[in-house]
Design goal:
With 313 residues, the protein is an alpha+beta fold. 35% of the residues lie in helices and 25% in strands. The protein has 2 domains: 167 residues, Ribosomal Protein S5, domain 2, CATH 3.30.230.10; 129 residues, GHMP kinase, C-terminal domain (Alpha-Beta Plaits). A hairpin with a 7-residue loop joins strand 5 and strand 6. 52% of the residues are buried. Bound molecules: L-homoserine.
Amino acid sequence: MAFSRAEAFAPATVANLGVGFDIMGLALQGMGDRAIVEFQDASEIVISEIQGDGGKLPLDPALNIAAVSARALLDHVDEPRGLKIRLIKGLPLSSGLGSSAASAVVSVVALNKLLGEPFAREQLLPFCLEGEALVSGYHADNVAPCLLGGIILVAGTTVDAIQPLPIPERFHLALVTPDVPVPTDSARKILPKHITLKTMIHQTGAVAKLVDALHRGDLGALGAAIENDRVVEPARACLMPMHKEARAAAKQAGAAAVFIGGAGPTLCAICESAAIAKATASAMQAVYQAANTACIAQATGVDRCGAVLLNAD
Ligand code: HSE
């Protein structure tokens, strides 16, 4: 059956997991973006409407992530028709919740349906990366979990680099996102350009321990590994308001690990029960409220599906 219109949803994601800079990420239950994509006879892509972005995202298809990703897929299959895209942003921008990846993924997943699903889900990675690269750089740690769900190791930018990791049984999440945008490019510019061999050995050891802890479902070892970042989080902490205080509140509430979500300013905590995750989210929220900084707090879990098609006709 041929479809001319499809609607999809793409979840929030959290990249890095502390030491796994640019090579690891997970998908979150709950928040996400939606897109409605329709074929049109004219060959261009038109962004007909964007909701939920406060007017901040470009309508110009050459600058819009959803359009650039969709264009990469249309060109790849030599599709002569163009598209009309309506984007409904559920994710705050520049927040560390994978907003740009969700824009890329949601349009590509809907378009793949319109095209008759020529590509398996993971094969959509390169098209999504074309859009993601516009604002975040060419790395797949948000795009891969957004497409596939789960906790994903993506040690590269090609489809064969995707490796789903086990989700431990007692694995709950608490997140707080202060209303202080941190653009990814600023958060990348602040990183050290060179590290010593000693630091490199330390970081690779911590990543190896993280992966091992996930396989063994050992949250104690997982927390220690995630928090053992000597390169990225120490450099970025100054960009996150109340970072130290919110982290301390999360640990006090019982979190097993606290790390900056993606490029920030979201702080993400891993907790061994839903009750601890709820208490941790409230404790981190209270820190920002006390500082008169608006924030979104949530207790959630890992989304296992990734982007979903909502309907097509
Ligand atoms: N891994 C990326 C970073 C995620 O931390 O800069 C944001 O795109």
